[in-house]
């Protein structure tokens, strides 16, 4: 999605100059260097936030932020891909293109920074050039629901796409002494919520009333114009109402509707943690049943541009209740203490699929707004994470935790399984490294359980992944039992990356840990203790010689562990041409 920041396009263009590209410049065959083989990416060009995730008649639809014309952020439209198993995706034509030849804008509005209303008037534009407006409006993030009962009037089972329309327009005051339109004050960003609908199963969309907003910027309750976005719609079965969450800077606003067209503002949720450190984005209220019970809770998930555990952008969540109008956090301290969905650098803008009964499946963008310039690939740029199935677990009185695991359909890719066996590994006052000699590759699932005794507790244990033949270059997935910290260390992968903050402290010291790692061409997703914690990391091993990054080993430092149920499973490509 985004950016409303004027410097985003400039920064991304500079990053394209600083970092060399790899791969082919013409049509992709999905086999370029660093092209992930079981994570979705577009054939060509930039993608970011997933939008409008929905299932209809056995087909999963993934819409997403997409630039159809280039490999950097811009020309934001909704790309589209479909799947029958959440794993194998087929790219479809652009679903909702950016608006062109947009009509003249003319309204008065007072923001919190104005002393009186000002005049928004002129041709919309997306180029921050008041002298040469291009008449365009970007299509930012949003969501899709299935209108099973034809509440909106477009037909039974119509797909309704709610999205943010974004543009800039000239602003003037009421002084007409020099200009009959008023004194020119410059350009401002406008964001409004719009609707498009599809009656052919998502193949084509019609913009409702020619892109006329269903929630105009003048309806923003906190008087913002440039950070009002990302509508996510969900049905509240208990109160028989549709609820829409939209961010407005440092808060989430909740609207409700019974006909899916007319929306009424009901309440807001104020940010109480790290206020002002970037804006909230991609809000969602997720109804969930607590695992093993009949208790129902609502999870508020959000993306934040800055302040995530590994630095830059990330995703957080809060647990509470919803009464059909307002979200009620579980305790008075809930909003002050966000929980994080992922402790790696690269999990952002995740939302769940709608119309999937009895399952809560989230998909995220595998990147970070602070480091996106390091993803120097061509002809594509940007990938999605593996779809994750979420469950809500009660861990203490008034405390809940999301458990995340890859969807079971990932097993459809399983090919060769190599058993590493059950064994003791000793490393008294040293580091013991054992190379895996019967498997090499770049696309696999690696899983093992480690346990130890107090008197022989090691200082480190884990795996060296994507190793070069001489062992000098590698990505480390490990655990420090003394600090109870799991981590990904890519400081020795050959990229010369100085950051080393992809880590998480576990909640308890159990003298054991299970690591399940999904390794792809340019990414790692680590699921700790069956999804208790997750680390997601984009990486580009050994850029001077990418083909020399197929090795694998396991290690223990200064102690002794038992390794059980250790195995490597080769995962087939989803592209079907290898």
From TrEMBL:
Residues 426-569 form the Glycosyl hydrolase family 32 C-terminal domain. Residues 1-25 form the signal peptide. Coiled coil: none annotated. Pfam families: Glyco_hydro_32C, Glyco_hydro_32N. GO terms for cellular component: cytoplasm. GO terms for molecular function: sucrose alpha-glucosidase activity. CDD domains: GH32_Inu-like (cd18622). Keywords: Glycosidase, Hydrolase, Signal. InterPro entries: ConA-like_dom_sf (IPR013320), Glyco_hydro_32 (IPR001362), Glyco_hydro_32_C (IPR013189), Glyco_hydro_32_N (IPR013148), Glyco_hydro_beta-prop_sf (IPR023296). Residues 39-101, 135-406 form the Glycosyl hydrolase family 32 N-terminal domain. GO terms for biological process: sucrose catabolic process. Belongs to the glycosyl hydrolase 32 family. This is Levanase. It comes from Terrilactibacillus tamarindi.
